[in-house]
Amino acid sequence: MVKVGQKVALLLVDHGSRFQEANDMLTDVATMVKRISGLDCVHYAHMELAEPTIAQGFATCVGEGATAVVVHPYFLSPGRHSTSDIPRMVAEAAKTFPGIEYCVTEPLGLHTKIGEVVLERAGIPLPAGVSE
After folding, report:
1. How many domains does the chain divide into?
2. Phi-psi region of 5 (alpha: psi -120 to 50; beta: other; left: phi over 0)
3. What element of type H or E holds 113?
4. Predicted pLDDT of residue 6
């Protein structure tokens, strides 16, 4: 999807919550991803219940000069929100910006690093030889 010469934005999307602390976590994730990725344009949005909305987040990315927006559902498992609702909402937001390419990625899913985080949170050390 990403082509040479495009300014790529990453938009992280979670469900959204009535609890501000939960919404703030996505802000922190976006800040961390921006720092470690070197991308200039990393933003976040909430599917519902909080702002910025997906439409607002998409517009922010384009407003910063993005010509391609990669949307990542910040969910553990594929489900209705990550496979249907978010792609539909992103497509609707993208209609406002013809010519801007976009894609919606898979959610986090199964990944060795997620298993490593589970073990770390549980206080169980990784076996010798397993990379961190």
Report:
1. 1
2. left
3. helix 112-122
4. 84
Does some domain include residue 81?
yes
Detail the DSSP E strand segments found in 51-121: 68-73, 101-104
How far does Cα 10 stand from its chain's mean position?
7
| E strand or H helix that includes residue 28 | helix 20-37
- CATH number for the domain including 25? 3.40.50.1400
Average pLDDT, consecutive stretches of 10 residues, N- to C-terminus, the chain (132 residues): 80 96 96 95 97 98 97 95 96 97 95 92 87 58
From CA 51, how far away is CA 73, in angstroms rounded?
Answer: 16
Position 1 in a domain: no
Residue 69 maps to a domain: yes
Whole domain around residue 105: which residue ranges?
Answer: 8-122
37, 57 in Cβ contact below 8 A? no
Contact 4, 67 (CB under 8 A): no
Interatomic CA distance for residues 25 and 55, integer angstroms? 20
Does the residue 130 lie in any domain?
no
Nearest to 41 by CA among 73, 7, 72: 7
- Angstrom distance (rounded) from CA 85 to CA 88: 5
